[in-house]
Write a structure and sequence with these properties.
67 residues; mainly alpha; rod-shaped
Length: 67
């Protein structure tokens, strides 16, 4: 009997989501405008972070296929 609450695919998606979230924060830190008010810091980076959180929610709510 499997004691883990999630399946292998869920954990893989969670790791990918964390990497995407970190990538979004790195993109936000690359903004060269003062106080991060450029396109990278205000638009592109937060959209990448939001995509990572959406993937995390999907990974948590996805039902494992082995049950």
């Amino acid at each position: 009997m499997n004691k883990l609450p999630f399946g292998r695919a869920n954990y893989t998606l969670m790791v990918i989501g964390v990497v995407i979230i970190l990538l979004g924060f790195i993109v936000m830190s690359l903004d060269t405008e003062e106080f991060g008010f450029g396109a990278l810091g205000l638009t592109i980076g937060p959209l990448i972070v939001m995509g990572g959180f959406i993937l995390e929610f999907f990974a948590i709510l996805r039902r494992p296929t082995n049950q």
